[in-house]
Amino acid sequence: MAKNIIFSGTGVALITPFRKQDSIDFTKLEELINHVITSGVDYIVALGTTSEAATMTESERTALLQFIIESVNGRVPIMLGMGGNNTRAVTDAISSTNFDGISGILSVTPYYNKPQQRGLVQHFKNIADVSPVPVILYNVPGRTSCNMTAETTLQLAEECPNIIGIKEASGNMGQVMEILRCKPAGFSVISGDDALTLPMLAMGASGVISVIANALPKEMSDMVHFGMKGDMKKAAPLHYKMLPLMNAIFEEGNPGGIKALLEIQGRITNQLRLPLSKVSKTLYNKLASLQSTFNQA
Questions:
Q1: C-alpha distances in angstroms, 238 versus 138, 234, 246, 247?
Q2: Rg of the chain in Å (alpha carbons)
Q3: pTM beyond 0.85
């Protein structure tokens, strides 16, 4: 069955700036939101992994989401991270959420308890049944220890009208190609790996949910837009220009790397919440050097 593509192009997995006192720095967050939107990103992902939502209280998450909705002010769609490894808890949370200003949800595969594929099917069918907005699946086995196979993704795409896409971050290009080859019309396959975005676009992906776009929103958006048009002569140079920074920000985990880079750019204070910690001085200096080289290129 055909689906309506809502999320296309460059989505930014928004970080959460913190003050040294560990509270959310809403001033810096608003500045970052304005920066990424005016630089050309197509949508924003709120309360995803990169936001450190797992370290926040429920009241903080509620306040943060409301602030993002108000700051975005309808300029681009917002995708909300809503997932977990307790199906009933996720569906209850969806049922109690006010979705005004939210265009869709991003729901990660359950982590830690390692469900079988048939469990994943039922988990996401339950989520799709209660969600008043479209659902985007999120497959990231490097974080969850649970890979959702191409067959499972395609079954959900065919059987659930409200499941409109997947953020694929398995790093398995064979799996990605199988989904792209067999998916229903309008079902979006979104890159979850900055460095793999261009080859995925060449195979027919619908864009990226990007971490580096926090720091390089114009360059990433331009690369994605050129790539989606098939203009590799313009897309490839941007990809290779960004690639060293794309790789470096993940060397010691996310969002430690991107927050260090944003501090180097003067946009935030480099603060994370435990159990996450700042990147090493060695990596910080490497990022500073790469940023300087990037500016000179």
A1: 26, 7, 12, 14
A2: 18
A3: yes
Task: Report residue 10 CA to chain centroid gap.
Answer: 9
Pairing mode of beta strands 104-108, 188-191: unpaired
Could you tell me how far CA 214 lies from the centroid of its own chain?
11
pLDDT in tens, the chain (297 residues): 456 677 999 999 999 999 988 899 999 999 999 999 999 999 999 999 999 999 999 999 999 999 999 999 999 999 999 999 999 999 999 999 999 999 999 999 999 999 999 999 999 999 999 999 999 999 999 999 999 999 999 999 999 999 999 999 999 999 999 999 999 999 999 999 999 999 999 999 999 999 999 999 999 999 999 999 999 999 999 999 999 999 999 999 999 999 999 999 999 999 999 999 999 999 999 999 999 999 998
Which pair of structure tokens corresponds to residue 5?
């593509």
Residue with tokens 């006010």, as numbered in its chain: 98
Homologous superfamily, domain 9-230: Aldolase class I (3.20.20.70)
CA distances (Å), origin 168, targets 42, 107, 108: 18, 12, 10
Long-range contacts at 173-178 (CB < 8 A, ≥ 24 apart): 173/199, 173/200, 175/147, 175/149, 175/150, 176/200, 176/203, 176/205, 177/203, 178/150, 178/154
Query: What sign results for the dihedral spanned by CA atoms 223, 226, 229, 230?
Result: negative
Instruction: Please give the Cα distance from 65 to 57 (Å, whole number).
Output: 12
Residue 120: name the closest of 102, 106, 134, 138 by CA.
138
Domain boundaries of the chain, sorted by first residue: 9-230
Residues in the chain: 297
Q: Please identify every residue annotated as catalytic.
A: 138, 167
